[in-house]
Hints:
Elements: H1 14-47, H2 50-72, H3 79-108, H4 112-140, H5 145-199, H6 206-228, H7 230-242, E1 246-251, E2 256-260, E3 270-273, E4 276-279, H8 285-292, E5 302-307, H9 312-317, E6 325-329, H10 333-341, H11 343-349, E7 358-361, H12 365-371, E8 379-385, H13 400-409, E9 410-419, H14 427-438, E10 443-453, E11 459-468, H15 488-500
Parallel strand pairs: 5-6, 5-8, 6-7, 8-9
Antiparallel strand pairs: 1-2, 2-3, 3-4, 9-11, 10-11
Helix pairs in contact: 1-2, 1-3, 1-4, 1-5, 2-4, 3-4, 3-5, 3-6, 3-7, 5-6, 10-11
Amino acid sequence: MIYRPVPARLPVPAGLGRFLVLSTVFVCAACGLVYELELVALASYLTGDTVTQASVVLSVMVFAMGIGSLLAKRLRCRAAFGFGAVEAGLALTGGLSAMALHACFAWYGQAKPALVGFSLTIGVLIGAEVPLLMTLIQRIRRQDAGGAVADLFAADYVGALVGGLAFPFLLLPVLGQLSGALLTGAVNAVAGGALVLWLFRGDLTARARWSLIAANVLVLLLLAAGSVLTGPFEKAALQAVYGADVRVAVHTGVQDVVLTGGGPGGQPAALFLDGRLRAGGGEASRYQEALVHPAMEGPHRSVLVLGGGDGLALREVLRYPDVEDVTVVEPDTAELRLARTDPGLVALNQGAYRDPRVRVEAADAFDWLRARRDSDVPYDVVVSDLPDPDVTPNAKLYSQEFYGLVARALAPDGRLVVHGGAPEARPHTFRTVDATVRSVGLRTVPFRVAAGPRHGGRSEDWGFVLASRSPVRLRLPDVRPYLRSLTPELLSADGSAEARRKEEGLLPSTLMHPRYGE
Length: 518
């Protein structure tokens, strides 16, 4: 049986009615793309591995959109009511998705099942929009199917462009994840509800009209309540993850930075980067000590620190009085600002950025090294204190091309040390870092030390690769400052254990073929 839409009874001329439908398509498409991008962003923030998570979210959503289109066929005979119901459901689900996923991660430690569930639900609802809108626009004025589809998709694609640009440049930086999603849901509910309850009100029975009014009012009230509770919710979620003394929590665009303690309450300060404890307490200081001090065994007058904007690796470098100059290359200006101004973090890094020997370059490490001239003075020590390599945006900073640029900046007898992730949790990633450093002609010694806990109390380890053009030994300098948690015996034991696990024959990671996460 072929469904043939009957002309609608509109309160405005057909031309204006058609324009209003296409305008609603524009708004709903923008909202739909914001939901998609929100889920992709949340997937990368909460679970890491941007490529995998984006692929899962987008593939599930596209599949679900196909299911939604098929299901919408049953609603075409009541297209106005069906579209109104779909938009109310989409506004509620998309608007609350960010808050729900954060809650799952904070209180249950797992967001992946909820992420797939929201991707599936939102995809089904988005997929149901187009067939219903096609029916509505045909009811205003009959035209050939190709022309109607072209008009509909043109409005849809332009709306998607606006939503895609609004998310990173307006919603995320100005409102944040939670408030941005809630506002998008409210706009979605108003646009869909207004179209159906005003323009197509003649198609609705009294019962259907009041049902849609009640549904939209309820959705807007729930979204408004979520907006009011955003502040308390964020605070409670942070405390569920990091404890009750969270003082600073920001997503800088590069990483999540959380500072706990260090305030008037007397609790010791602690710094978490992307959920991992980097400083605060005896065990946490072992990361910076293991990263810096083995590389300082030898000449170290000139030192280059790549990353490490918190100033903690810099603090360890500056403990050596014969260091003459240190260059810090860090793109995260927000972290640099915190490291210079936050009392708790300044106490942790011991005011490292006030030292006259320090020069800061706010730049991407890859671009900065590539712009460096061969005639520039080489560095005795290069400390690579960068985020984990298995996070896709950081893959280029662990590539063969990157280490080639680093080797060019090294003095002939200089040493490079690289933070390479967690050998126990991600052994392939760590071995690939080692293989990639070796691929540029450097000799390496991989080693690891026991780490402080991540959020939730889980304990992991830190992996490092020490490299030089000549054979390199893993040892601490004979003349060194006092170390709080790293001892020569501990370093020797951990280094020997990791050296026995070293794998030969692994392919290096390159810009053309990143191998982290394989």
